[in-house]
Amino acid sequence: MDLLEEIQQAHRELYSIILPTPLTKSLNLSNKYGSSILLKREDQQIARSFKIRGAYNKMISLTNSEKERGIICASAGNHAQGVAYCCELLKIMGKIYMPKNTPAQKIKKVELLGGSFIKTVLVGDFFDQTYSIAMGDASINTRAFIHPFDDVKVIAGQGTVGIEILEEHQKPIDYIFIPLEGGGLAAGISTVFKQLSPLTKIIGVAIQDDSSCGISTLDKNSLDPIDQFIVDEPITKRNSLTAKICQKNLTAVLKIPEGKVCSAVLQLFKEEGINIEPTGVLSIAALDYYTQEIKGKKVVCIISNGLKNSQREPEILERSLLYEGLVHYLKVEFPQGPASFKEFVNEVLGPEDQITYFQSVKKDNCKTKPFLMRLELKTPNTILAIKAKMLAREFLYQDLSQRHDLFTSNFCPGDTAYLWEQ
Question: Smallest Cα–Cα separation from 353: which of 375, 332, 322?
Answer without folding.
Answer: 375
